[in-house]
Amino acid sequence: MRAAAVGAVAVMLGLVAAGPGQQPPAPAGQAVKRPAAPPPPSAPAPEPVGPADPAVAALVRDLGAADYKAREKAGRDLEELGDKALPHLRKALVDTTSPEVARRLSVLVRKMEYDRLVNPRRVTMARKSRTPKELCDEVARQTGYRIEFQGNGPAADGRHVVGFDNAPFWVAMDAIADLAGATVNTNGYDDDAVMVSAFGPPTRTPHVAYAGPFKVAATNIQLSRSLPLTGNDPRGLGFVRPSESVSLQFNLFSEPKNPLLGMSLQPAVISAEDDLGQSLAPPPNPGNPFGGRVSYYGGGSYRSFNLTGSLNLVRGGREARTIRSLKAKVGVNLLSGVVPEVTVPNPVKAKNLKVTGRTVEVEVDSVAGGNGGYTVSMTIKKLGQHDPNFPDYNWSNSIWQKVELTDGKGNRYRNFGPSNMNTSPTSVTMTLPFQPTDRRGVRQQFGEPVRLVVNEWVQSTHEVTFELRDVPLP
Question: Is residue 97 part of a domain?
């Protein structure tokens, strides 16, 4: 039963793909010295799980209770705990020996995994007087996210009577920011902290759309006019009148539980109308299934919590003053799971080691200490077949983000990116400096590294549909 449960977890995370009669590949390997052949792959290391929650453990046991009503109630109670309980439920699914518990956990974990990707975490607070920082602290407590409030002055220190009733995370955070005249932002490509900054003059972001755990904020709108000075005679039938186009730039933010790896589908206009009822949607292009309605998007497979994009529009007339309604969609790649693929124990002692995983081969030249930190010199090669006509530079440019160095207590050394890097679509040789610092750069007391890990990222795609209203036209 335990082996079957492990297989169920792997299938749900998209880690196993095997046809009839085939054995699914296992995703991890063991470190061996050159030139020895790589050993058979083994099962991936389990996802790190915090201390066991007695309440969760009791509910998991009740999933196998003799009373049907008790089993049903335990399932409902576990689901109400939300995605914060998922690590414990995944571990329970692996550990259980009860067929009934395994069956119910399999269904529950699958549903909660989906809900985690598409539903927001919510906030409920009774109306009472609080400072913006106290509000942020309560949101952090309810959601489990790291929220850091920074600021001073009357707006930041003032007290406000405010409450929320099952409000989505981004709705609550923007309301708090408006009270303090603050900005809300995620903090960099590899940090899940949400920053609320009330320094400087008050700021506003009035044109925002919310879609589940995502927020889309319009940041700029630009008008472009084109007037050809040569070409067809304006008295002729082929004369092309001056054209005007509008480009709307936006940022897409994700909740910290859903790191973004880029956009899988270009931003596309579904419909757009100005305040005079005229369409702003570009005409379709027969050579493009999306017509002229797509535009710039960013990402590049880097782990981040916000992406940038833009939408092309066509102005209907100069008399219009606002975009009454703009409906659009964008596909995003989400980091839905992290699986340790290759693990090197006692990395400081590793010299010229070769490690083979499911998708990569890792060669560790050395892990050297110095200046209070450690420097890892390594080469990572992508395994499998590759089409030379379609090189995957996203993989080679972002592979360094998948490397972790931890001490015996699980403290993770901070990786600020390679100091030296030579890449090809299938191989990366790099030098990675790691420092025992927090996100602010403050040095921490870490022990000697005991584990070097190269993770495999499990990705999923999701389409975000949003609507912006009453956006001013230039």
Answer: yes
Q: Is residue 200 part of a domain?
A: yes
> What global pTM score does this model have?
0.76
Q: pLDDT (tens digit, 9 = 90+) per residue, 19-65?
A: 333 333 333 344 333 333 333 333 333 444 555 678 888 999 999 99
Give me 41's structure tokens: 């792959």
Cis-peptide into 35, omega within 30 deg: yes
Q: What is the full DSSP assignment across 176-202?
A: HHHHHT-EEEE-STT--PEEEE--SS-
Q: What is the DSSP letter of 1?
A: -
Helix, strand or coil, per DSSP, at residue 411? coil
The tokens of 147 are what? Answer: 């929220």
Of 224, 267, 257, whose CA–CA distance to 242 is shortest? 224
Tens digit of each residue's pLDDT (9 = 90 or more) over 77-127: 998 888 778 888 888 888 888 999 989 998 898 888 888 888 899 999 999
- 339 pLDDT above the threshold of 90: no
Please name which of 454, 465, 459 lies closest in space to residue 31, comparing C-alpha atoms: 454
Distance of CA 307 to the CA centre of its chain: 10
| CA–CA dist 468, 211 (Å, integer) | 11
pLDDT in tens, 405-446: 999 998 999 988 899 999 998 999 999 999 998 766 788 899
Q: Which of 27, 5, 29, 28 is nearest to 18 (CA)?
A: 27
CA 369 to chain centre: 32
User: Could you tell me the residue range of the domain that residue 59 belongs to?
Assistant: 47-118
- How many independent structural domains does the chain possess? 3
Q: What is the CATH number of the domain that holds 427?
A: 2.60.40
| Helix 54-62, helix 68-80: angle, nearest 10 | 140
Show Cβ contacts of residue 251 under 8 Å, excluding neighbours closer than 6 positions.
Answer: 216, 217, 219, 306, 307, 308
Spatial contact of 378 and 361, defined as CB atoms under 8 Å apart: no
- One domain for residues 178 and 152: yes
- CATH of residue 145's domain is 3.55.50.10
Examine the domain organization and report whether 388 and 345 are in the same domain.
yes
SS3 content of the chain, % helix, strand, coil (to 5): 25, 40, 35
Structure confidence by residue, pLDDT tens digits, 288-332: 544 444 444 444 578 889 999 999 998 877 889 999 999 999 999
